């Protein structure tokens, strides 16, 4: 693993940064299984993150599609980071040092609510 790679293993300090101030990288297209995209700033994906693909950002993750793969925002420890997408349908998401396993719908008869935003409140990831 490279020294400058992002991820839970690389978090050494906690810091706060306003989400409005960012250095963004735009990826035009969908990320397929086996693809990995990393950037110190915000990542904007103009497509989907397919199952088996990874997006690891030091700041925010913004997807103009569906997240079915791994999305990790605030990988350097930024708990102010957010994940936003047209739909979050991944088995797991990460913000800073917090991991959230996605739960199955409690009642299959209920209409599935579409999750579009994830952020940290307290010490857990909130999905709306």
Explain this structure.
There is one protein chain. The protein is an all-beta fold. The protein has a single domain, classed as 3 Solenoid (Pectate Lyase C-like), CATH 2.160.20.70. The protein contains no helices and eleven strands. The chain has strands spanning 24-28, 36-39, 42-46, 54-57, 61-67, 70-73, 83-88, 92-95, 98-101, 117-121, 124-127. The strands form two sheets. It has a six-stranded mixed sheet with strand order 1-3-5-7-10-11, with no helix packed on it. A five-stranded mixed sheet has the order 2-4-6-8-9, with no helix packed on it. Strand 10 (117-121) and strand 11 (124-127) form a beta hairpin. The model is unreliable at 9-14 and 105-110 (pLDDT under 50).
Q: What is the name of the CATH topology?
A: Pectate Lyase C-like
Number of domains: 1
Strand fraction: 35-45%
The residue-averaged pLDDT reads: 85
**Count of individual beta strands:** 11
The second-level CATH architecture is 3 Solenoid
- Summarize the amount of helix as a percent range: under 10%
The end-to-end distance, rounded to whole angstroms, is 34 Å
Identify the strand order in the major beta sheet.
1-3-5-7-10-11
- Given as residue ranges, the uncertain stretches (5+ residues, pLDDT < 50) are 9-14, 105-110
């Amino acid at each position: 693993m490279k020294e400058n790679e992002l991820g839970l293993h690389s978090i050494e300090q906690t810091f706060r940064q306003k989400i409005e101030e960012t250095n963004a990288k735009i990826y035009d297209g969908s990320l397929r299984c086996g693809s990995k995209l990393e950037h110190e700033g915000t990542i904007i994906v103009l497509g989907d993150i397919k199952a088996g693909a990874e997006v690891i950002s030091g700041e925010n993750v913004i997807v103009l599609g569906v997240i079915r793969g791994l999305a990790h925002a605030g990988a350097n420890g930024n708990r102010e980071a957010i994940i936003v997408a047209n739909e979050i349908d991944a088995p797991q998401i990460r913000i800073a040092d917090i991991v959230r396993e996605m739960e199955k719908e409690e009642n299959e008869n209920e209409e599935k609510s579409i999750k579009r935003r994830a952020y940290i409140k307290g010490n857990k990831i909130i999905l709306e």
